[in-house]
Amino acid sequence: MEVDGLPWYGENGGELFRLPAKLKDTYRMPVWELAQSPSGGRIRFRTNSTTLAIRLEYPEPPGMSNMHAFGQTGVDLYADGVYRGTAIAGRDAKAGATKEHVYYKQQPAALREITLYLPLYMGVKVQRIGLDPEARIERAKPFSVAKPLVFYGTSITQGGCASRSGMSYQAILGRTLNVDFVNLGFSGNGLGEPELARAVASIDAASFVMDFAQNNPTVESLTQAYGPFLEAIRAQHADTPILVITPIYSAREAWSRDPRLDGMRELIRQVAARRITAGDRHIEILEGTDLLGPSRGDGLVDGTHPNDLGFEWMAEGLAGRLAKMLGINMTR
Question: What pLDDT, in 10s, does the model give residues 186-204?
Fold first, then answer.
């Protein structure tokens, strides 16, 4: 079995954190708290077991207003790329209590590719994965590229408001392109501070995808963060592709332009354009409104965050661009 999408998993002693625990005191408290939700983390293996079950420990019950229990706490099972079920935290969840869930049983003993997607917005401990005693366990199939795609951003990046963990846009993209990914989205806290730039830049990535802007209160505050964030990546990865995404459509733009969002879009274009003019041949711009624009308002759940339809659209729009940047053949 392998754990993907959590670069510091080994260093963190098997804890499902998204940032290195040894540096937790250098991050703002909300960032570290969000880092304990293992969004983007996956457990992968192949098995011919006729049964698959899981035992989980959650620190508390679900309680978000714009995401139900499946979206907040769910551990999704995909078998051979097909969704099979979700384990969730119960209303009585608390530290020390465990929850068991059987995904399937008494199925034919065929070798299956298993992926368990960890929760988007809740910490969890995976106590056990239950298989037949005599079941074969093999390594999961390799990804199409050896290194992960690294995403940094906001609540949208973290997965709000997918109906379940396998429906974030990175998870959909991962299945479409057969790529590994790291999700460093932090709800309400994707500000682009230097500590996070260093964390992102420390990962040996196939590509970096910058999906942050909206959490900054002003265009001016984004100006202070955006250029230095890209520079921190380039200082460590001179030739690694970077894709910058401008903010997607918000429902409040239905009747009139939003000067703040428009200003952020223009700033991102300008920062990237300056790098291109200066000779950076490995950075590209993608308009967020091309992924989810004014004609796709049904892809939003609360006027701001994508629902499953919105994330499908985002993944579809990203797949072709990233495949081209990484040399992935999508026709296979």
Answer: 999 999 999 999 999 999 9
Amino acid, res. 198: R
Q: In this structure, are residues 192 and 226 in contact, taking their beta carbons and an 8 Å threshold?
A: yes
Question: Cis ω on the peptide bond leading into residue 161 (within 30° of 0)?
Answer: yes
Compute the CA torsion angle 307, 312, 314, 316 (nearest 10 deg): -170
Q: CA-to-CA distance for 299 and 291, rounded, in angstroms?
A: 10
CA distance 268 to 286: 10
Question: In whole angstroms, what is the distance from residue 232 CA to residue 284 CA?
Answer: 17
Is residue 181 a contact partner of residue 174, using CB atoms and an 8 Å limit?
yes
Q: Which residues contact 10 (CB under 8 A, 6 or more apart)?
A: none
Six-digit token pair at 283?
A: 């950075």
**Domains by residue range for the chain, with CATH:** 2-138 (2.60.120.260), 149-326 (3.40.50.1110)
In Å, how far are 95, 150, 157, 178 from 216, measured between CA atoms?
34, 20, 15, 32
Residue-wise pLDDT for 41-79, tens only, equals 999 999 999 999 999 999 999 999 999 999 999 999 999
Whole-model pTM over 0.70: yes
DSSP output for 239-272: SS-EEEEPPPP-GGGSSS--HHHHHHHHHHHHHH
